[in-house]
Specification:
The protein is an alpha+beta fold. Among the domains are: 81 residues, Thrombin, subunit H; 281 residues, Alpha/Beta hydrolase fold, catalytic domain (Rossmann fold). The chain contains twelve helices and 36 strands. The strands form eight sheets. Strands 29-30-32-31-33-34-35-36 form an eight-stranded mixed beta sheet, with helices on both faces. Strands 1-2-3-4 form a four-stranded antiparallel beta sheet, with no helix packed on it. Strands 5-6-7-8 form a four-stranded antiparallel beta sheet, with no helix packed on it. The longest helix is centred in the last third of the chain and has 19 residues. It holds the Pfam family Peptidase_S9.
Length: 649
């Protein structure tokens, strides 16, 4: 143990270089016979989404060489950009958003026709059929307007011909064919989001259609056909997303309610939290107290949790008597896992990076529930996952409390994932305490908790992040004079709103592609979220201006800059279609005019979220440098971090 050093300045091997070194974010997992496939985004390759196949003999190969990039822009968040069956691969390439198929020589062959507008026709949620592939097709017009984007379900043949199967709803997803030719899909219309009111529709082989579940006040996700023609799905009619089964005779049964959400919000296509096994059992994942469990449900209704050292499970698939999934935990980055459903062997098919670190460097999360104002929601508590400062080779001066970083997830309909996150450990290993807040409106705690944000975004979330910070300060765990708030996207909005509308609590902030003007967001953003604020804030009239949209104006940080005197770092991608750069530039201009200390980094070529290694590093080191300048501690000299330019100091 070395001599005591101020919090924030502790030397650590968890540098920005380590954060991105050979990093690859696991995106999707698919089982194809005895093979397991997955996709991973690699910052070192410019964020390229690479497809990887692991054969039964253990051989692992990259299927698509550079520059192929299996990534779709449907809904801008993507998902379901590729599918494989019997070794036949279909995928959407990021560069032109066209559909490709691996030909007999192993090379990609373009299938879909060239669109009139570059990348103007996009495909997602792919499923192979005997005569081609089912897909969600998103078509953009020359106007560029969100209102003119058309979503359809189509069948595409290998020769490029296509047939429209579903047209009319504002949004569609999850097209799935049963063994007898029945088609099911999910649909929803503005202003609902899929977690608000998605319907499950079934069309039989003779063309008859019926709504099986969902609608106002009820959301359905992840429909899956059983071999007997029954349809399994997750629905939140009991408050939490629970498992149901619909039978062809029209009956619907509640199969399993575990008292917490099995599903999560459908931000991306092709999510899977349960899988039907060949012997009639069901593998499923669900959350409780901030962590996931993986379990097996018998045909008789017995539920058995598997004893595994992980806290997050996704892309749950069945492979004979085994469960294949993505899994991660507080001390492990995400891996591809194969688990014997009977509780036997566990095999890691795709290991995590070898970080070369003793686990003693990792801060272990604590699930915390704290009191918060009611705000008319009827809910008086919120939740957070707290990561205390952890460094086996450093300590602070006697009596010095650590600075706090309150982290805010995006969405805002989302939640914190307790998988080892080196960005969090980057801060905790330097002496920061980090609290990741699941404010009211977050998912994983049921519909009532999720709906507490309806009409109250910019109120409830602010009260909860403030309450969390004050709870930790009152408990003597953090220094109340050094409390920061950071977040991206919707989390960035909460950062800006907290600093401008709840001044005096935080003494620094970092907004990553955050929202500054709700009216501008409602008017400019992409189709998927173009009516999102109708529920979170209030219906928006694009022709009325700020005076005709008073709630949007009142809750926009850009309209509260007179009380904005907290130092702020702003990070933004130049090609962000979800939160355009104009949002960041508006708040930066206001800070400059007021002389508030601030820093601004704009990353060319980046979209909503940073995927390139050099930009991830610049944003992380820049944020640390910003805190060091604001709070007056020294950066570890060995890392050679160049100070970010802070204007107005």
């Amino acid at each position: 143990m070395s001599a005591p050093l101020p919090h924030g300045s502790w030397p650590t091997p968890i540098t920005s270089e380590l954060v991105v070194r050979t990093a690859a974010r696991l995106e999707e997992v698919v089982v194809d016979g005895s093979d397991v496939w997955w996709s991973e985004a690699r910052p070192a390759e410019g964020g390229r989404s690479v497809l990887v196949r692991r054969s039964a003999d253990g051989a692992v190969v990259d299927v698509l060489p550079a520059p192929w990039n299996a990534r779709t822009r449907v809904h801008e968040y993507g998902g379901g950009s590729w599918t494989v069956s019997g070794g036949v691969l279909w995928f959407t390439d990021y560069s032109d958003q066209r559909l490709y198929r691996i030909g007999t020589d192993g090379s990609p062959v373009v299938v879909s026709p060239e669109p009139a507008i570059p990348a103007g026709v996009r495909y997602a949620d792919l499923r192979i059929t005997p005569d081609g592939v089912l897909a969600v097709r998103e078509t953009h017009s020359a106007s560029g307007a969100a209102a003119d984007v058309v979503d359809e379900i189509v069948r595409v043949r290998p020769d490029g011909g296509s047939q429209v199967l579903v047209r009319g709803p504002d949004f569609v997803s999850d097209p799935r064919l049963s063994a007898d030719g029945s088609l099911c899909w999910l649909q929803w219309d503005h202003p609902a989001m899929p977690w608000d009111a998605a319907q499950l529709v079934v069309r039989s082989g003779d063309g008859n259609e019926m709504v099986v579940a969902g609608g106002p006040g009820e959301s359905v996700v992840q429909p899956t056909w059983g071999p007997d023609g029954s349809l399994w799905f997750l629905c939140d009619r009991t408050d939490v997303w629970s498992l149901y089964r619909w039978r062809p005779d029209g009956g619907t049964d509640l199969v399993l309610d575990v008292g917490s959400d099995i599903a999560g919000p459908q931000w991306r296509f092709d999510q899977s939290r349960f899988a039907l096994m060949d012997d009639g059992r069901i593998a499923l994942a669900y959350g409780r107290d901030g962590a996931d469990r993986l379990a097996v449900l018998s045909p008789g209704g017995d539920l058995r949790e598997l004893d595994l050292p992980y806290a997050s499970f996704s892309f749950v698939r069945a492979q004979g008597a085994r469960i294949v999934c993505a899994a991660g935990g507080p001390a492990a980055e995400r891996v591809v896992l194969s688990v014997d459903a009977d509780g036997g062997s566990v095999e890691v098919l795709r290991p995590a990076r070898d970080l070369g670190l003793d686990p003693a460097w990792f801060s272990r999360p604590e699930f915390v529930t704290f009191p918060t104002p009611d705000d008319g929601t009827g809910i008086e508590v919120a939740h957070a996952v707290v990561y205390p400062p952890t460094n086996p080779e450093a300590s602070a001066p006697q009596g010095e409390l650590p600075p706090l970083i309150v982290m805010v997830h995006g969405g805002p309909t989302s939640s914190h994932d307790r998988v080892l996150n080196l960005e969090i450990q980057y801060f905790t290993s330097r002496g920061f305490c980090v609290a990741h807040v699941d404010y009211r409106g977050s998912t994983g705690y049921g519909r009532r908790y999720r709906d507490a944000l309806q009409g109250r975004w910019g109120v409830v979330d602010l009260d909860d992040v403030v309450a969390c910070a004050q709870h930790l300060a009152d408990a003597g765990r953090v220094d109340p004079r050094r409390m920061a708030i950071r977040g991206g996207s919707a989390g960035g909005y909460t950062v800006l709103a907290a600093l401008s509308m709840r001044p005096g609590v935080f003494t620094a902030g970092a907004s990553h592609f955050g929202v500054a003007d709700l009216g501008a967001l409602a008017a400019e953003t992409h189709k998927f979220e173009s009516r999102y604020l109708d529920g979170l804030v209030a219906p928006y009239d694009p022709d009325a201006g700020p005076s005709g949209n008073p709630v949007h104006a009142e809750r926009s940080p850009i309209n509260h800059v007179d009380s904005f005197d907290t130092p702020l770092a702003v990070f933004q991608g130049s090609e962000d279609a979800v939160v355009p750069p104009s949002q960041a530039e508006a708040i930066v201009a206001a800070l400059r005019e007021r002389g508030v200390p601030h820093a601004y980094l704009l990353f060319p070529g980046e979209q909503h979220g940073f995927r390139k290694a050099e930009n991830i590093r610049a944003a992380l080191d820049g944020e640390l440098s910003f805190y060091a300048q604001v709070w007056g501690f020294e950066l570890p000299a060995a890392e050679g971090i160049a100070p970010i330019e802070v204007v107005g100091r």
